[in-house]
Fold these 2 entries.
Entry 1:
Amino acid sequence: EAAVTQSPRNKVTVTGGNVTLSCRQTNSHNYMYWYRQDTGHGLRLIHYSYGAGNLQIGDVPDGYKATRTTQEDFFLLLELASPSQTSLYFCASSRDWGCQNTLYFGAGTRLSVL
Amino acid sequence: AQSVTQPDARVTVSEGASLQLRCKYSYFGTPYLFWYVQYPRQGLQLLLKYYPGDPVVQGVNGFEAEFSKSNSSFHLRKASVHWSDWAVYFCAVEGADRLTFGKGTQLIIQP
């Protein structure tokens, strides 16, 4: 079973604060993703990557940066956090892209921006 | 661009009753479709997936889904729900480079 670990599990920050969410997968997957989940919106893709050093823009990228430092590690950065970024964030990974590849999700990070 | 509509934000069923969760998709061409489940305080897990072939797809824990091209639908079904099925269910369609999820349906089980 693929393992995706997110940290921290919960985070509280203030408006204008600097936040980094971490994600590590240990299954040699090529693709990694950051989603946010909000009531009434479901899951929305923020950024994704298909390898170390690669970054692709998702559907709701504004206010977020991401960096894939290794095949295992994918970080989401909020440099000037705003209350609108209060959300539940999920990281996911998949071996490759395409129907035959399942996304494996972490347990999520709940972020509150006060 | 592709899209998914789950018209029911919340569905309540009695334990042991049958279940149908609705999903409508919009996609140019032949879609690849998925159902994911999110149990309380957990990440999403794959329930089942469809790619061209048999329109009825079997998943885990007794779930199945039926693809209809004419109705642009991919509804999820289960013959008899259990309290452990209490979760949020997401339908998704695969695009060129990403999955697009619906807003999810919260399934509530009544004893």
Note: The mean pLDDT of chain A is 93.
Entry 2:
Amino acid sequence: SQQGEEDPQALSIQEGENATMNCSYKTSINNLQWYRQNSGRGLVHLILIRSNEREKHSGRLRVTLDTSKKSSSLLITASRAADTASYFCATGGTGGGNKLTFGTGTQLKVEL
Amino acid sequence: DTGVSQNPRHKITKRGQNVTFRCDPISEHNRLYWYRQTLGQGPEFLTYFQNEAQLEKSRLLSDRFSAERPKGSFSTLEIQRTEQGDSAMYLCASSLTQGTYGYTFGSGTRLTVV
């Protein structure tokens, strides 16, 4: 079953613009992660934020986490055509094993 | 070590046949996960191993599915008596045991049941 839901389902922007994707989840979490998937390929880990953190940066990526609202956002600044991909949030539960539950994904298209 | 390797990349099989996929994780990663992904959806958890022990199985993993990780190294996922609904991308990932880390995914095996 899917834990998270990403919003929007699809996003189309121009190169150089910022892209914001949101994720909502249902249960208590230990951490939340974002992954990128290019068409027909495996997923690539982008960033991890722990439940006691509110904001994290990595290069052009900024992630926020609001555990009271059970939501997270991923901001990609100064987007590039190479950022075109599907982006998934994934939540790690409070149980053992760091099993991740993935959301439904946002398809981002960055046009030249 | 070049990452997580999955074989084959593509598999087309007739309904009712058995198929087996292989995953070679990053050597120092003790945890190994199998996920299934259908078109337009996020990956769905199937099962995971810590070393050679299979610690959790999803209810998605029917009796026709079995996974092994002998000696805590590579893993295999077998589907018996395949059905058209088994058509999907099967993804393998590995991670470190201690603490909380992101997964490293393989490129997946795309299964088509005809």
Note: The CA atoms of residues 66 and 78 of chain B lie 5 Å apart.
